[in-house]
Amino acid sequence: MSEQDTDHSSRFWDSGYDTTTPTTFECLNCGATIVSEDSIGTCERCGGGLRNKSMPIE
Amino acid sequence: MQRHTTQSADAERTSETTTNEPSSTLEDALLQLERAAELVDVDPNVIERLRHPTRVVQVSVPLRRDSGEVEVLSGYRAQHDDVRGPYKGGLRYHPAVTAEECTGLAMWMTWKCAVMDLPFGGAKGGIAVDPKTLSAAETERLTRRFAEEIRDVIGPTRDVPAPDMGTDAQTMAWFMDAYSMQEGETIPGVVTGKPPVIGGSEGREEAPGRSVAIVAREAARYYGKSIDGLTVAVQGFGSVGANAARLLDEWGAAVVAVSDVGGAVYDPTGLELSAIPDHETQPEAVTTFEGAPEQRSNAELLELDVDILIPAAIGGVITEANADVIAADIIVEGANGPTTFDADAVLEDRGVPVIPDILANAGGVTVSYFEWLQDINRQSWTEAEIEAKLTTKMQSAWEDVEAVYDPAMMTWRDAAYAVALSRIARAKGARGLWP
Ligand SMILES: [Zn+2]
Question: Cα of B374 to ligand 1 centre, how many Å?
């Protein structure tokens, strides 16, 4: 993103996670939103798979 | 409603795109188009048409904040080409969203859909806003107003948005509801990535990881490597990396290293992946995993001597600075754009094959296509059906790219773009130019 824009060799601005702020995940099963400092894999409410909201799907 | 197009500005940029170091997504997308054009026998008039997006819509989106104050934000939808079907691509809420970046990413979606032979063209859009500053109520109002502002250019047979950076299934649900309310009927096929209760598909979470694993398996086969004991290193233990690693492990490969933001664990004989907890029980699971004999940094993981390296975390990790020391035999791009333009050239010189993102991580958009198919046909497929259809689609896309790939002439990325470009060119040729 802004950092990526200055890197003239970067192919994309999908820079993914920003390690300085907590990551927001969405549960693809129950729809819960979970904010976490850590990289988490499953929903604490239903055990469903999570998606990191800072990443594109397509 | 404010609306104008920016393609003339974009067109002017095109003529300046001659350096080796593209500085924007759009310049890179155009450079890639030029490379592919040299490999495929295509009417130059078709290439000229593909240099320009069909339209780039900009709208003003007034948002009433919870405080009562009104703020006017800028929203965009770039539609690159729809010769093969409705436009498809994500909607992102991010402060850095611009018309130009959306145009480059829309172009990239055109190639991705074409290489997968999905009946879609490419689009991308979003709102220039930091989603972390929005309350849930503000996000809902913003999304509904944005849906209304771009309503006349989208629709299940026109342009089908999806979640992207800063947006999610709930955003798509509000978007679909706003669109359906105005149209007077329930139209689930207007967006993908919805919650399952309103027409979202099964199998979304696993799809990009599964496509990466299938493509890695096919690449290994192409280079005469057996899946049994195939050594694999995966950067990024998020949903793409973790699912790819687990599937490859299941198929007999030895996943020797995985990493998350905190660092990597390494076991030259293969990690016991099932022992790495699903992070909710143990924060920072990768680095605190005790079953692995050795720890590595994320940078060191990229330099491991393995059969297959899968960068699945973020873009721009393989650069001119480390491309020389990559010791993997094959790179499979799980993330979008993990290999920089300069690194690509170094790896090409060194003869290290790079299987490109537009093929490897296309499982995401492929399952979006399945969701759209279910919605427009009023059907619901099981997870097993999705899995089987995705496997078939990935294998056939791989076969099409492999049939074009000629190691003396091109990279795998070139081959994938050549497949995409020739499909688009044939469609343009068949349809002709109206009027
Ligand atoms: Zn859940």
Answer: 23
